[in-house]
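User: I want to check something. If I give you two sequences, will you return the structure for each one separately, not as a complex?

Assistant: Yes, each is folded on its own. Here is the first sequence with its structure:
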Amino acid sequence: MNPEDLQKSIVLITSSESNNSRFGTGFVIRQVSGTAYVLTCAHVIRDVGGTEKVKVDSKPGTVIASGEDNGLDLAVLQVYGLGDKPEINLQLSGQRGSTFITAGFQLYDKAHLIRSLQGNLGESVGLHSVGFGERVQAWDLRIDGDYSLQPGYSGSPVVDEPSGYVLGIVSHRQGEGRRGLAISIEALEKIWKFVDRERLYRWLLRLGYSRQVRLFRQFVRKHSVAALLIHGSPYYGQRWLLNLLLVKYLPYVITSRDVKVGLTRRTRKFDATALWREFCTHIQLPKNSSPSEIAQGVYKCCQTQNMILIFHNVEWMPRESMKEIIQDFWLPLATKLQNSQLTSKLFMFLVDYEGSVGNLEDFFTGGQDANNSSYTPIKTSKFSPDDLFRWIDNESDEIPAELVNEFESKVEEILDSSSGGIPEFTLDEICSRCGFNWYDESKIWLEY
């Protein structure tokens, strides 16, 4: 990495208080959906007035992780609006005598000047963190050339020239600035872990919904042909729960044929007609097929494979159309399959995102041989403090330290920011603290 490219990732950290002229340096270590994550020194945050006073390139910064209380001089900031700042790759590297480059800010008249420096790594030393009860690696720095470390370089990246990776963070200057100390990048994991998308997805699948999962597992163990209504208030994570159940708890899903139909508001105008037209395209039937003909088509599919039928946004459907789906399509299909010698599994999911469909029990208890068709509603609910405590405790070896450290207060913060544990708001908050945007990632994660 050349000095010019390095400087593109460097940010100036100042105070929002006009009478505080202290400042420091930071650098972008991650960019996610318009949000930058900046690494700096914890003492820089203290110098500029604390967590409520931080500005990063003149933009407000939120401290999401800090090692200050544990004697580790590192902090991570979350900043919106730094999309032009590229992230720098981190990696444990370097050896005594190897060359490095760094860049940071210094005061120049009434302005802040950014300058790159070069040098060599000196001895590898250890810093004992009282709070963590162990040592972290650090490097002595030796600066070459005409310039030296200045007040304000705290938080600057130390980049290993041979590899181009950040190996440490400038923490202190010594003497006239020809010497300094850098904390090894390995210490970052003690306060904030890099989380990849797939790992975060697996963690979140283990959060909450224990009652709903228990009900679902008991239900599908008893029935091979069944209909389920997943419903709840808006933003209660109905689709996330559906995805969780199918990915983790329905063993037939990997060998099934999935038919997904997403309703739109115009369905109100066309009643069930638009639904049936879309459904027919999935099973290669004429678009004007009747519900009984469609049921026969699904039955033929079940002769060779398991089937999962998913109807999204059923809250937009008139009640008469819902009755048609259940009594003219589902009940005859379920009865025929149950009375056959086939061993195929058939599950139908009706997903209500507004909690307005209400009780469908009457629909499933009427019609021909209705008692042969099994039905259960599964209602979503808020995440409780116990859900979050249990999740953090079970995943403490994996999830970021920012969530684990002082987790009682973290749980309280998450619940406060999610209106008491509304699932989608909670997932959004956790993703944000892990460096991801829930609304972007859910488009990738939600398979069903």
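And separately, the second sequence with its own structure:
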Amino acid sequence: MQKLYFVRHGQTDSNLAGLLSGHIEAELTEDGRKQAAAAGKELKQKHASIDLIICSPLKIAYETACIIAKELGYS
């Protein structure tokens, strides 16, 4: 049985300010990086294998995906 897991990007300064940034590039905060790492650790702990990670081309999504991949042992 295949499963899909959806993970939102980590926190940004725009999120903290209550702003919607849409397609504007933003940086993850340090807390955002910690959130991404925690998501990766939880995925690794609770699920046997993740075969594929897909993300949007936005920097925040890509960085979040890379951090998760690292926690899963893919980098």
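Because they were folded independently, the notes below concern the second chain alone. The chain has a mean pLDDT of 88. Residues 16 and 29 are 9 Å apart (CA to CA).
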